[in-house]
Design a protein that fits this description.
single chain, alpha+beta, SH3 type barrels, 2 domains, 3-stranded antiparallel β-sheet, about 30% helix, about 30% strand, rod-shaped
Length: about 100
């Protein structure tokens, strides 16, 4: 003998709605954590690379003629490969990273 069960309207959607609410909550939490991580990894500095900030105060540069320059950094930029563009006392030097030392004090 078969029993007739009446389905309540919307009964099948209740678990799905709970699942969607959990999924939305998880996505919101993930976005908030991502934003917090990005805020922690950035800050005051003179160089940003891959969402990480590197701050250097001084540089030592060895020029091709053998002259060594040591002074405070105004700004610096890292290019693809091994090149660094360092500005010291209004003069911009484009050097290989092999010939430069950046110092954070």
């Amino acid at each position: 003998m078969r029993k007739n069960f009446k389905r309540r309207a919307g009964a099948a959607t209740i678990p799905r709605q709970k699942g969607l609410k959990k999924m939305k909550k998880t996505i919101i939490i993930a976005l908030i954590l991502t934003a917090l991580l990005a805020a922690v990894l950035t800050g005051c500095g003179n160089m940003t690379l891959l969402d990480t900030t590197y701050t250097f105060d001084r540089a030592i540069i060895c020029l091709p003629n053998g002259e060594i320059i040591e002074s405070e950094i105004e700004s610096w930029t890292d290019f693809d490969g091994e090149q660094l563009q360092i500005t010291i006392d209004g003069v911009t030097y484009l050097v290989s990273s092999i010939n430069a030392v950046l110092i954070a004090e």
